[in-house]
Write a structure and sequence with these properties.
single chain; 164 residues; elongated
């Protein structure tokens, strides 16, 4: 059961479903609603199986209908999520257009960073930290990055001579 079988099975479906956007958001909503209705029907069959004349086949039918409804609901959510993904060939844009300056705050680029957000991997200055702060999801450590300044040629030679 490889991809050839799946391709042959999908050949009968209209091509519009598979070109560009997989499915519209409205269709995904309808599929989710149909699955929720199936789950409701499955739950309604459970008390019917537990009534004065218990029947195990009705209970099994209720479980099957509920499971199938859950599968249909999950399929609708999957199709909606796939519709929201960008195209596979698109390249993400760089906001700044140029490379970031090493050593400064990664949001504003002008001040010395004091905090490093471990979750988002951002070095932040005090003013940007006030906007970024979220105690529920972010973990902060003191920043080890300082403003990058090029050492003078003589200073680099003096430093290397002192270590030898």
């Amino acid at each position: 059961m490889g991809t050839r079988y799946v391709r042959d099975w999908l050949a009968g479906f209209p091509r519009a479903l598979f070109e560009g956007n997989i499915m519209s958001s409205r269709a995904g909503n309808w599929i989710i609603a149909a699955g929720a209705f199936g789950m409701f029907v499955g739950l309604c069959l459970v008390p019917a199986a537990m009534g004065p004349n218990p029947d195990s086949s009705v209970l099994a039918l209720g479980a099957c209908v509920f499971s199938f409804g859950a599968l249909i609901t999950a399929s609708g959510m999957y199709l909606k999520a796939r519709g929201m993904q960008p195209a596979a060939g698109s390249v993400p844009e760089n906001k700044n257009g140029a490379r970031r300056v090493r050593g400064g705050c990664e949001l504003c680029g002008s001040d010395t960073p004091v905090i490093h957000c471990r979750v988002h991997q951002l070095h932040l200055c005090p003013s940007c930290l006030a906007q970024h702060y979220d105690f529920r999801s972010c973990a902060y450590v003191p920043s080890t990055r300082r403003t990058a300044s090029k050492p003078q040629k003589g200073a680099a030679r003096a430093r290397s001579a002192s270590f030898s």
